[in-house]
Design a protein that fits this description.
The chain is mainly beta. It folds into 2 domains: 89 residues, Immunoglobulin-like, CATH 2.60.40; 98 residues, no CATH class. Helices cover 12% and strands 35% of the residues. The strands form 6 sheets. The chain has a 5-stranded mixed β-sheet, with no helix packed on it. Strands 1-3-8-7 form a 4-stranded antiparallel β-sheet, with no helix packed on it. A hairpin with a 2-residue loop joins strand 7 and strand 8. The termini are far apart. Keywords: Aspartyl esterase, Hydrolase, Membrane, Signal, Transmembrane, Transmembrane helix. InterPro entries: Pectin_lyas_fold, Pectin_lyase_fold/virulence, Pectinesterase_cat. Belongs to the pectinesterase family. One of its GO terms (molecular function) is pectinesterase activity.
Length: 241
Protein backbone atom coordinates (compact mmCIF):
# COMPACT_ATOMS: atom_id res chain seq x y z
CA UNK A 1 0.00 0.00 0.00
CA UNK A 2 2.78 2.39 0.93
CA UNK A 3 4.59 1.57 -2.33
CA UNK A 4 1.49 2.42 -4.38
CA UNK A 5 1.08 5.75 -2.61
CA UNK A 6 4.74 6.56 -3.17
CA UNK A 7 4.48 5.77 -6.90
CA UNK A 8 1.41 8.01 -7.28
CA UNK A 9 3.16 10.81 -5.42
CA UNK A 10 6.20 10.44 -7.67
CA UNK A 11 4.03 10.72 -10.79
CA UNK A 12 2.43 13.95 -9.53
CA UNK A 13 5.84 15.35 -8.61
CA UNK A 14 7.16 14.53 -12.09
CA UNK A 15 4.12 16.18 -13.71
CA UNK A 16 4.61 19.32 -11.62
CA UNK A 17 8.29 19.38 -12.53
CA UNK A 18 7.51 19.16 -16.26
CA UNK A 19 4.96 21.98 -16.02
CA UNK A 20 7.39 24.17 -14.08
CA UNK A 21 10.17 23.45 -16.58
CA UNK A 22 7.89 24.44 -19.46
CA UNK A 23 7.27 27.85 -17.93
CA UNK A 24 10.92 28.32 -17.00
CA UNK A 25 12.08 27.53 -20.53
CA UNK A 26 9.79 30.03 -22.21
CA UNK A 27 12.00 31.26 -25.04
CA UNK A 28 12.20 35.00 -24.76
CA UNK A 29 14.26 35.13 -27.95
CA UNK A 30 11.08 34.54 -29.96
CA UNK A 31 9.75 37.95 -29.03
CA UNK A 32 9.36 40.37 -31.90
CA UNK A 33 12.30 42.64 -32.61
CA UNK A 34 10.90 46.13 -32.16
CA UNK A 35 14.16 48.01 -32.63
CA UNK A 36 14.44 50.60 -35.39
CA UNK A 37 17.07 50.24 -38.15
CA UNK A 38 20.49 51.73 -37.46
CA UNK A 39 23.05 52.85 -40.05
CA UNK A 40 26.18 50.76 -39.44
CA UNK A 41 28.56 52.01 -42.12
CA UNK A 42 28.91 53.75 -45.47
CA UNK A 43 31.57 53.31 -48.14
CA UNK A 44 31.94 57.01 -49.07
CA UNK A 45 32.50 59.59 -46.36
CA UNK A 46 31.51 63.25 -46.47
CA UNK A 47 33.90 65.25 -48.67
CA UNK A 48 35.62 62.18 -50.15
CA UNK A 49 37.20 62.16 -53.60
CA UNK A 50 36.40 59.06 -55.66
CA UNK A 51 36.57 57.86 -59.24
CA UNK A 52 34.02 58.73 -61.94
CA UNK A 53 32.48 55.25 -61.87
CA UNK A 54 31.47 53.60 -58.63
CA UNK A 55 28.69 53.36 -56.10
CA UNK A 56 27.38 54.75 -52.84
CA UNK A 57 26.55 52.05 -50.30
CA UNK A 58 25.07 52.07 -46.80
CA UNK A 59 24.96 49.07 -44.47
CA UNK A 60 22.16 48.94 -41.90
CA UNK A 61 21.59 46.81 -38.81
CA UNK A 62 18.87 44.75 -40.49
CA UNK A 63 17.39 43.91 -43.87
CA UNK A 64 15.86 46.97 -45.53
CA UNK A 65 13.42 47.92 -48.28
CA UNK A 66 12.24 51.18 -49.84
CA UNK A 67 8.91 52.38 -48.53
CA UNK A 68 6.08 52.87 -51.06
CA UNK A 69 5.64 56.34 -52.54
CA UNK A 70 9.08 57.53 -51.42
CA UNK A 71 12.00 58.85 -53.45
CA UNK A 72 15.80 58.72 -53.19
CA UNK A 73 17.95 61.33 -54.92
CA UNK A 74 21.32 61.63 -56.63
CA UNK A 75 22.30 65.18 -57.61
CA UNK A 76 18.69 66.24 -57.23
CA UNK A 77 17.24 63.58 -59.53
CA UNK A 78 15.13 60.62 -58.45
CA UNK A 79 17.09 57.36 -58.71
CA UNK A 80 16.53 53.68 -58.14
CA UNK A 81 18.69 51.94 -55.55
CA UNK A 82 19.59 48.28 -55.28
CA UNK A 83 18.83 46.70 -51.90
CA UNK A 84 20.46 43.42 -50.91
CA UNK A 85 19.30 42.59 -47.40
CA UNK A 86 21.02 45.17 -45.17
CA UNK A 87 22.97 46.83 -48.01
CA UNK A 88 21.54 49.79 -49.93
CA UNK A 89 23.49 50.81 -53.04
CA UNK A 90 23.30 53.34 -55.83
CA UNK A 91 25.67 52.89 -58.79
CA UNK A 92 26.88 55.96 -60.67
CA UNK A 93 29.02 56.36 -63.78
CA UNK A 94 30.57 58.98 -66.06
CA UNK A 95 30.79 61.56 -63.28
CA UNK A 96 34.19 62.96 -64.28
CA UNK A 97 35.12 66.05 -62.26
CA UNK A 98 31.67 66.56 -60.78
CA UNK A 99 30.34 67.32 -57.32
CA UNK A 100 27.90 64.62 -56.22
CA UNK A 101 25.20 64.46 -53.57
CA UNK A 102 23.33 61.31 -52.57
CA UNK A 103 20.23 61.73 -50.39
CA UNK A 104 17.86 59.37 -48.61
CA UNK A 105 15.03 61.25 -46.85
CA UNK A 106 13.91 60.05 -43.43
CA UNK A 107 11.32 57.30 -43.77
CA UNK A 108 12.29 56.33 -47.32
CA UNK A 109 13.84 53.11 -46.02
CA UNK A 110 12.21 50.68 -43.60
CA UNK A 111 12.95 47.25 -42.24
CA UNK A 112 10.81 44.28 -43.29
CA UNK A 113 8.29 45.05 -40.53
CA UNK A 114 7.83 48.62 -41.74
CA UNK A 115 9.90 50.34 -39.05
CA UNK A 116 11.52 53.33 -40.69
CA UNK A 117 15.06 54.61 -40.60
CA UNK A 118 13.93 57.97 -39.29
CA UNK A 119 16.94 60.14 -40.07
CA UNK A 120 17.81 62.06 -43.21
CA UNK A 121 20.93 60.66 -44.87
CA UNK A 122 23.07 62.62 -47.27
CA UNK A 123 26.68 62.49 -48.41
CA UNK A 124 28.55 64.96 -50.59
CA UNK A 125 31.63 63.87 -52.52
CA UNK A 126 33.63 64.70 -55.61
CA UNK A 127 34.19 62.36 -58.55
CA UNK A 128 37.38 62.87 -60.53
CA UNK A 129 38.85 61.19 -63.58
CA UNK A 130 41.93 59.89 -61.80
CA UNK A 131 42.02 58.93 -58.16
CA UNK A 132 44.89 56.85 -56.84
CA UNK A 133 44.74 54.49 -53.90
CA UNK A 134 40.99 54.51 -53.27
CA UNK A 135 40.36 50.93 -54.36
CA UNK A 136 36.96 52.07 -55.65
CA UNK A 137 37.80 53.16 -59.19
CA UNK A 138 36.65 51.10 -62.17
CA UNK A 139 36.89 51.80 -65.86
CA UNK A 140 33.48 50.25 -66.47
CA UNK A 141 30.62 48.89 -64.38
CA UNK A 142 28.42 46.00 -65.54
CA UNK A 143 25.04 45.58 -63.87
CA UNK A 144 22.38 43.23 -65.25
CA UNK A 145 19.69 45.46 -63.70
CA UNK A 146 20.79 48.50 -65.69
CA UNK A 147 22.49 50.44 -62.89
CA UNK A 148 25.92 50.55 -64.56
CA UNK A 149 27.62 51.40 -67.82
CA UNK A 150 26.66 48.09 -69.44
CA UNK A 151 24.20 45.28 -68.86
CA UNK A 152 26.45 42.60 -70.38
CA UNK A 153 30.07 41.71 -69.66
CA UNK A 154 30.87 41.23 -73.34
CA UNK A 155 29.71 44.77 -74.15
CA UNK A 156 32.07 46.16 -71.52
CA UNK A 157 34.98 44.15 -72.91
CA UNK A 158 34.17 45.18 -76.48
CA UNK A 159 34.18 48.84 -75.40
CA UNK A 160 37.62 48.58 -73.79
CA UNK A 161 40.51 50.15 -75.75
CA UNK A 162 42.78 47.98 -77.86
CA UNK A 163 46.41 47.18 -76.99
CA UNK A 164 46.24 48.34 -73.38
CA UNK A 165 49.45 48.71 -71.39
CA UNK A 166 47.80 49.21 -67.99
CA UNK A 167 44.94 47.45 -66.16
CA UNK A 168 41.43 48.13 -67.44
CA UNK A 169 39.15 47.27 -64.51
CA UNK A 170 35.60 46.09 -65.18
CA UNK A 171 33.39 45.75 -62.10
CA UNK A 172 30.61 43.13 -62.40
CA UNK A 173 27.68 43.61 -60.02
CA UNK A 174 25.86 40.62 -58.57
CA UNK A 175 23.45 39.11 -61.07
CA UNK A 176 23.02 36.41 -63.71
CA UNK A 177 24.63 37.03 -67.10
CA UNK A 178 23.57 34.70 -69.92
CA UNK A 179 26.43 35.05 -72.39
CA UNK A 180 29.57 33.39 -73.69
CA UNK A 181 32.39 35.85 -73.08
CA UNK A 182 35.35 36.30 -75.44
CA UNK A 183 38.49 38.25 -74.61
CA UNK A 184 40.44 38.56 -77.86
CA UNK A 185 44.16 38.89 -78.44
CA UNK A 186 44.18 42.67 -78.73
CA UNK A 187 42.33 43.12 -75.41
CA UNK A 188 45.16 42.58 -72.93
CA UNK A 189 45.18 43.84 -69.34
CA UNK A 190 41.45 43.30 -68.89
CA UNK A 191 40.52 42.86 -65.20
CA UNK A 192 37.08 41.31 -64.56
CA UNK A 193 36.20 41.96 -60.91
CA UNK A 194 33.05 40.27 -59.61
CA UNK A 195 31.15 41.76 -56.68
CA UNK A 196 31.03 38.39 -54.90
CA UNK A 197 31.82 34.74 -55.56
CA UNK A 198 28.25 33.51 -55.17
CA UNK A 199 26.47 36.59 -56.47
CA UNK A 200 27.97 36.82 -59.97
CA UNK A 201 26.85 33.98 -62.26
CA UNK A 202 27.69 33.58 -65.94
CA UNK A 203 25.71 30.98 -67.86
CA UNK A 204 24.88 29.85 -71.36
CA UNK A 205 23.29 26.79 -72.99
CA UNK A 206 25.96 24.14 -73.49
CA UNK A 207 23.73 21.88 -75.59
CA UNK A 208 22.26 23.89 -78.46
CA UNK A 209 19.87 21.02 -79.32
CA UNK A 210 18.16 21.28 -75.94
CA UNK A 211 15.72 23.92 -74.83
CA UNK A 212 17.33 27.28 -74.14
CA UNK A 213 16.26 27.03 -70.50
CA UNK A 214 18.68 24.15 -69.90
CA UNK A 215 21.49 26.18 -68.42
CA UNK A 216 24.68 25.33 -66.61
CA UNK A 217 26.08 27.93 -64.23
CA UNK A 218 29.60 28.44 -62.88
CA UNK A 219 30.96 31.14 -60.65
CA UNK A 220 33.02 33.71 -62.53
CA UNK A 221 36.36 32.63 -61.06
CA UNK A 222 36.14 29.15 -62.56
CA UNK A 223 33.85 29.83 -65.49
CA UNK A 224 34.44 27.79 -68.65
CA UNK A 225 32.32 30.31 -70.51
CA UNK A 226 35.11 32.86 -70.79
CA UNK A 227 37.27 32.31 -73.86
CA UNK A 228 40.67 33.89 -73.21
CA UNK A 229 42.91 34.58 -76.17
CA UNK A 230 44.56 37.75 -74.88
CA UNK A 231 47.41 37.73 -72.41
CA UNK A 232 47.32 39.35 -68.97
CA UNK A 233 43.62 38.92 -68.33
CA UNK A 234 42.73 38.74 -64.64
CA UNK A 235 39.52 37.37 -63.07
CA UNK A 236 38.69 38.26 -59.48
CA UNK A 237 35.86 37.98 -56.99
CA UNK A 238 35.54 40.51 -54.21
CA UNK A 239 34.15 38.83 -51.10
CA UNK A 240 33.35 42.23 -49.66
CA UNK A 241 33.83 45.67 -51.14
Amino acid sequence: MNTKIINIANKYLLLCLLVFTGFACDDKDDKEDTSIPVLISQNIEEGAVVGPNGYVEQVFSKAMRQAPDTEIYFNGGVVRVTINYEKVRYTFSNMENKACTFEIPAGALTDMQGRAYDEDFSVNFTAKSEVAGTGKVFDAIVDSKGNGDFTSIQAAIDAAPFELTAPYKIFIANGTYTECIRVLKNKSYIHLIGESRDGVKIQFALNRVSESTNMVTWHILFSMKILLIAKLVILKNRMRL
